[in-house]
Every structure is written in structure tokens, then in C-alpha cells.
Design a protein that fits this description.
This protein is mostly helical. Among the domains are: about 220 residues, no CATH class; about 60 residues, Zincin-like (2-Layer Sandwich). It has 22 helices and 4 strands. It has a 4-stranded mixed sheet with strand order 1-2-4-3, sandwiched between helices. The chain is globular, with a radius of gyration of 25 Å. Bound molecules: zinc ion. The site of zinc ion has 4 residues, from helix 12 and helix 18.
């Protein structure tokens, strides 16, 4: 532990200039955030012309009808236009908030509201929680029209929207309610750890974040998801039998098998699993069950169980711990840095003793460029995992010595194509756009991968 702390102090020493030099951090944040927005717009402009192609890629030509292809191109074009507009709109909002001292205003306002109830500045944690909610609530209002447009105009136009205005408002209120219920104790504990551990906060905070993530793995699907969707046990029948037998052969600790009414809000479809190492639950969207045959849904599940077999969720969690550690290791230099707060228009008295939460949020803004790189790296890892899970499904028959699974690759391919066509997903993708935005390989890449796993297997047999 002492070695860790001496290394962390070394990092802090290297960054000591942050707490004394009068750097114009506001200007830096403006330049960097605009650079990121312009880069994302550039990616959209690279991708845009591909929506005007009149023929699907050769590998897909046999599987997608001309009318579906045309519809998916139009949908992609509309989504790209919307993404371009909303990217600029959000960036303008953020820029205005940073330029005109919105963060400082939120802090002072939270203090003023507390003062009305007789609480002074000595209640820093209470003020911090008020500050976060004020910031979150006021800044989310101007982006509300974007989600209304996306749901009721864009998705509606292509027949995906199943949300009624009443459900939309109920979801929004539930979302806010859940944020208050979860975020309040989280922030309270987060800030208490800083107060209590002082400069030795890194390992304690890491342990706390990990514990919180693990608790959410259990709480989210059991408590939060049911507030939005109905999970019901999958009806007995061919699909249930197939999945139970597959899980049994792989020794997957399946406790519950659910069908979820994803179609209540949208016709996009999917399947996933969750739970603790000794008790797992599988959830399948009703839309997936409706559009694919039981043996194809089984292949989708074989892919999902590949994620479990290769410990992908655990590996992702480990990667995210490294990410969190990097953020915490860099933070101490910004924790007691009056010039940072001063450059974002905080009053002198507040800047002299920076409140932890304020320092942390400003530090997060300063980290924006690093986060863009982290997300590219995370996507690369995730795409590798997808490839590995596809291979797992294709090689299942060897693993389980079950001849009935010899066509698993074909079935998975058919299910992926059906999912893709029904969701009108983009078929022509620019590589740079995809590297930045996509956590999954493109459909063409996956079909090619499946084909090569199959042919390698056959060669081995000969
Ligand atoms: Zn996957």
C-alpha cells in the first residue's frame, strides 16, 4: 500500500503545476470539446455518401431484399442527419454553459437553496448533492426535444416506435426518480470516502466503485429493469427445451429463463444474460422470438454463452477497473487546485478551498480527449470479444461432440441477418466511423468470420 501511495504522490508531483499555474482551463475545454465534435462530424461525413449506394455488399445480396435495402439506406441517412444536428446542438449548449459560468451558478444556487433551509456552507456534502442534481436537471431539459424527435418522428417514420406519449413521460419521470434514489447514497458515500481517507483515497474509492458495480449487476435487472419492462418466464416449448439443454451441456448455471416485452417500446430486438457466477438468468426479447426460428434463437444464445464461457463480462470489468484507477491516480493534482475553479468563474472563496465534487466534475471535463481514446480502445476489445463469441458458437459441435450442432454457424448467420434486416441496420460502413462508434463488428465482417471458422473446422476434419 505504501508503494502505491508513494507512486501516486510521484504522479501528483509531476502534475504540481496544476495547483499553481494560472492556466486558461476554460479555453482548453472549449477547444478540445469542439475538436471532438468536429471530428465526430467528419466521421459522419465520411459515412454519409455510403447511404447513397444502390446495391448491398456482395455477401449480403442474397439475403436482403431490394426494398429492405432501400429502406435501411434511407433510415441510415435520416439518422446520420439527426446525429449531425444533435451533435452540434449539444456542443453549442455545453459550450454556452462552460462559457457563462453555469457550473459556478449551480454551486452558488445549491448553496442559496440550502441557506433557505438553515444549512450553511459547512454542509459541503449536502450542497454537493444539490449541486449535482441541479446541474443534471437544468442541463438535461434543453436536450429533451431531441429525444422526443428521435422517438416520435424518426423511429416512428420507420415503424420502430411503440412508445406512447404517456409511456414516454412515465419513463422520463421514472428515470429521474431512479437517479435520485441511486445517486444520492452513491454521492454521499463517494464524498465521505474522500473526507475520511484524505490523500489516501485511491484504493478505498476503487473498492467502493467495484462494490457498487457488483451490487448493480444484481439490483439493476431485478429491481430497475422490471420498472420499465415485464419479464415473464419463457413458455414451455421447443425454444425453452433447446436453451435449457444447451445451458445444461455447457454447465451454465441457468436459474431463470425470461422473455421480455421489449416490443412495448421499440421493435429493435436482442438477447442477454446476467447474474452472479453461481446463478444466471437469460433474457430474450419477444421481438427476437417472433422474427426467428427456435434453432436460430438457440444459435444467438450459443453466441451469448460464448461471452460467458470466455469470461467476457469479468474481463470487461477488469478493464474498467484499470480505467477508473487511471482517473483516480490523476485526480489528486486537481483536487486542491484553485486556478482550475477560478478559470471556470467560481467565486474566490469557493476556489480557495475547492469542494471535492466540483473539482472532480471539472477534472472530468478536462479529461475529455483521453476519454475519446479510451472509448476507441474499449470498442476494439469488445469487437474482439464478439468475434470470439461467434467462434465459440461455430465450434460448439466439437466442444460438445454433438452432430446436431454442426450447422450452428449457418443458424447464427441467418439470425444475425434477420436481426439486421428487421432493425434496418446500416450495411455499408466506413472503417474509421465504425472503429470510433461500434462495439460490434459489422454484419459483413461477422458473416465472413463465421464462414472462415466453418471452413477451418471442415479442413481439420479432412
Ligand atoms: Zn455478443
Amino acid at each position: 500500500m505504501d508503494f502505491l501511495h508513494s507512486q501516486l504522490r510521484h504522479v501528483e508531483g509531476q502534475l504540481a503545476f496544476v495547483s499553481v499555474d494560472p492556466i486558461d482551463w476554460k479555453f482548453y475545454v472549449q477547444v478540445i470539446s469542439w475538436a471532438v465534435t468536429l471530428f465526430e462530424s467528419y466521421l459522419l461525413l465520411r459515412q454519409y455518401p455510403l447511404y447513397s449506394k444502390t446495391e448491398p455488399p456482395a455477401a449480403l445480396a442474397a439475403h436482403i431484399s431490394a426494398s429492405d435495402f432501400e429502406k435501411s439506406q434511407k433510415y441510415g441517412k435520416d439518422k446520420a442527419k439527426f446525429a449531425l444536428f444533435s451533435g452540434f446542438y449539444k456542443q453549442c449548449l455545453d459550450s454556452i454553459m462552460v462559457q457563462f459560468g453555469f457550473y459556478a451558478w449551480s454551486w452558488t444556487s445549491a448553496g442559496r437553496i440550502m441557506g433557505k433551509f438553515g444549512y450553511g456552507v459547512e454542509y459541503e456534502i449536502t450542497q454537493s448533492i444539490g449541486f449535482v442534481f441541479l446541474l443534471f436537471f437544468v442541463s438535461s431539459l434543453p436536450t429533451l426535444p431531441l429525444s422526443v424527435y428521435s422517438t416520435f418522428v424518426l423511429e416512428e417514420k420507420y415503424g420502430f416506435n411503440k412508445t406512447s406519449p404517456g409511456l414516454f413521460v412515465a419513463d422520463l419521470l421514472k428515470g429521474w426518480g431512479i437517479s435520485v434514489v441511486l445517486l444520492t447514497p452513491f454521492l454521499w458515500a463517494f464524498l465521505h470516502i474522500f473526507n475520511w481517507a484524505g490523500d489516501r483515497f485511491v484504493p478505498w474509492l476503487m473498492a467502493f466503485i467495484l462494490a457498487f458495480q457488483l451490487i448493480m449487476v444484481v439490483v439493476y435487472p431485478m429491481v430497475i429493469q422490471p420498472l420499465f419492462n415485464k419479464l415473464s418466464p419463457l413458455a414451455a416449448g421447443e425454444l425453452r427445451t433447446r436453451i435449457e439443454s444447451l445451458a445444461g451441456k455447457l454447465k451454465f448455471p441457468l436459474t431463470h429463463l425470461y422473455e421480455i416485452d421489449g416490443s412495448k417500446r421499440s421493435s429493435h430486438s436482442n438477447a442477454y444474460f446476467f447474474g452472479l457466477p453461481w446463478s444466471k438468468h437469460i433474457v430474450i426479447f419477444d421481438t427476437l422470438i417472433q422474427q426467428s426460428q427456435p434453432d436460430e434463437v438457440e444459435a444467438v444464445l450459443a453466441h451469448e454463452l460464448g461471452h460467458w464461457y470466455h469470461l467476457h463480462p469479468t474481463k470487461m470489468l477488469a478493464v474498467s477497473q484499470i480505467h477508473v484507477f487511471t482517473i483516480f491516480a490523476l485526480f489528486p493534482a486537481f483536487l486542491h487546485a484553485p486556478p482550475v475553479l477560478a478559470s471556470f468563474d467560481f467565486p474566490k472563496a469557493v476556489a480557495a478551498h475547492p469542494p471535492t465534487i466540483v473539482a472532480f466534475l471539472l477534472f472530468q471535463m478536462i479529461l475529455t480527449p483521453l476519454e475519446a481514446f479510451v472509448s476507441i480502445g474499449m470498442h476494439a476489445v469488445s469487437r474482439h470479444f464478439e468475434w470470439e463469441a461467434d467462434r465459440f458458437a461455430c465450434e460448439l459441435q466439437d466442444k460438445l461432440s454433438d452432430e446436431k450442432m454442426s450447422d450452428m454457424g449457418d443458424r447464427l448467420g441467418r439470425a444475425l441477418i434477420a436481426l439486421h434486416v428487421k432493425n434496418l441496420s446500416t450495411v455499408w460502413v466506413d472503417w474509421l466511423y465504425s472503429a470510433y462508434h461500434h462495439s460490434h463488428p459489422t454484419l459483413t465482417e461477422r458473416l465472413k468470420g463465421i464462414e472462415s471458422f466453418q471452413s477451418k473446422r471442415e479442413k481439420k476434419k479432412l
